[in-house]
Design goal:
Oligomer: single chain
Strand content: 5-15%
Number of strands: 7
Distance between the termini: 51 Å
Radius of gyration: 32 Å
Largest sheet: 4 strands, antiparallel
Structural class: alpha+beta
Strand order of the largest sheet: 4-7-6-5
Number of helices: 15
């Protein structure tokens, strides 16, 4: 009997006393030795015929060689051959074959596409809820939007690092993840703080409808930085799709306003500053994507936890926002000397428990709902960047813009008046959806090329 005492790949039992000379073939760990794919084994009578399944995993051929003089060999093709030198007993060739590896490859790709699609849908839903709740949160905090912005910026630092600490204690976050180079997070903090500062500067000088239109240059900057920093290449259809998305948002947001006249009377420098603000924010998003790509190499294939990026990114952003706070407060029309009293009044309006402060109806419920939703949206958005790309995440956010405008046009609690939408809104939304379809139809072609 052929046997390996340590871990026998297979055993062959010969029973000469039986008239039918039955041979039983038993495998205990042949799968692990030959192939990562499942195999099927058979027992049969050598004097009779044997039928195989439609897609057999093993093929056994019969020849004549003495059982006592066999020499098993493993061939290049993954075959185990038992050679014999006489014509008395059967010889068997055991052949194991992989069943359908290409199907597994396409299944994995299909699963990843489904995951990206589901994550995108969740991100769009949270983005819409985030925009709507922000509008509702400004009902009680109408006089304190700057306080609300700083409250979320510095509040997220404590919340994110608390979650990171718990995940580290649970073993989800490793020391290698914490030890990633911090220079990338410093760059994220600087770029996002500069994006806030320049954005506020331009917003203070530009008319309202011009701000979301000029902000669509964010996607153009992302495409440029993605190609420059990550080496990504986009097809003509993908670029065209992105441009259609940005143009659709412009048409939907403008909604019949005199877009050709809205920048008249304003110096060219302020639209340029708003475009530069979008460049800062786009650069920060591409660096986040680069961190995930680089971490996969540094962590030897392990997935970087998103709370590492969220925590350190928000921490350095809060640090640089704090350094720019005098400038930011002046841009919002709040002298720095009056900032402490302004922040105190904003905190009182936010809490609004038992005080019934005039103009603060809806607090603290609405502001806290917005903060919670904004945090969930940021986590979902970063997860989408992780599993796809920063450009895909931006397209998902852009899709939420016309949906949010439509929801906000309906009568809502604390906003009962509603609003009417012009035909330009429907036109812009249609262009946006066509751009998304064009971009996503082009993606499989690009991936297959790679």
């Amino acid at each position: 009997m052929f046997n390996d005492s340590s871990s026998p790949p297979h055993q062959l039992f010969y029973c000469p006393s039986f008239s039918d000379k039955m041979l039983l073939y038993k495998t205990t760990s042949l799968n692990a030795l030959i192939s990562p794919y499942p195999t099927r084994l058979h027992s049969y009578n050598v004097n009779g015929s044997m039928s195989f399944p439609t897609k057999p995993s093993l093929r056994l051929s019969q020849s004549q060689t003495p059982l006592s003089r066999r020499s098993p060999k493993l061939t290049r093709g993954g075959d185990i051959r038992i050679n014999r030198n006489s014509h008395k007993t059967p010889n068997f060739t055991v052949r194991a074959s992989n069943e359908t590896p290409p199907v597994l490859h396409f299944t994995s790709s299909s699963n990843n596409s489904k995951l990206v699609l589901i994550s995108s849908a969740i991100t769009v839903t949270l983005a819409v809820a985030n925009r709507v709740l922000y509008k509702l949160a400004l009902v009680p905090m109408k006089q304190y939007p700057f306080f609300l912005a700083q409250f979320t910026t510095f509040g997220y630092v404590m919340i994110y690092f608390s979650i990171l600490f718990m995940r580290y204690r649970a073993g989800i976050v490793t020391g290698e993840m914490i030890g990633l180079p911090k220079s990338r997070f410093v760059a994220i903090g600087i770029l996002e703080a500069l994006g806030v500062a320049t954005g506020m500067s331009a917003a203070a000088m530009l008319p309202g409808p011009a701000i979301p239109i000029l902000s669509q240059t964010f996607l153009v900057w992302q495409l440029a930085f993605s190609a420059l920093l990550l080496g990504r290449r986009y097809s003509f259809k993908q670029i065209t799709g992105c441009m259609l998305v940005a143009f659709g948002v412009v048409v939907a947001v403008a909604s019949g306003s005199s877009a050709d006249q809205m920048l008249s009377g304003f110096e060219f420098i302020w639209p340029a500053v708003m475009i530069i603000s979008s460049a800062f924010q786009a650069g920060a998003s591409i660096i986040k994507e680069f961190i995930f790509v680089d971490a996969a190499k540094r962590l030897k294939g392990k997935s970087l936890d998103i709370f590492v990026v969220n925590s350190f990114g928000s921490g350095f952003q809060a640090l640089f926002v704090l350094l720019l706070l005098p400038l930011l407060s002046n841009l919002k029309g709040i002298p720095f000397a009056q900032l402490p009293s302004y922040m105190k009044s904003g905190a009182g309006c936010l809490v609004n428990i038992g005080r019934n402060i005039p103009g603060c109806n809806g607090a603290p419920l609405l502001p806290l709902l917005y903060v919670t939703m904004n945090m969930a949206f940021n986590v979902s958005l970063l997860n989408l960047v992780k599993i796809s790309s920063a450009v895909v995440a931006s397209l998902a956010v852009m899709l939420s813009v016309p949906i949010s405008i439509y929801v906000l046009s309906l009568p809502l609690p604390y906003l009962p008046e509603g609003a009417s939408l012009s035909p330009f809104f429907l036109l812009g939304s249609t262009i946006l959806v066509l751009g998304l379809v064009l971009y996503n139809v082009a993606r499989p072609v690009k991936q297959a090329s790679n």
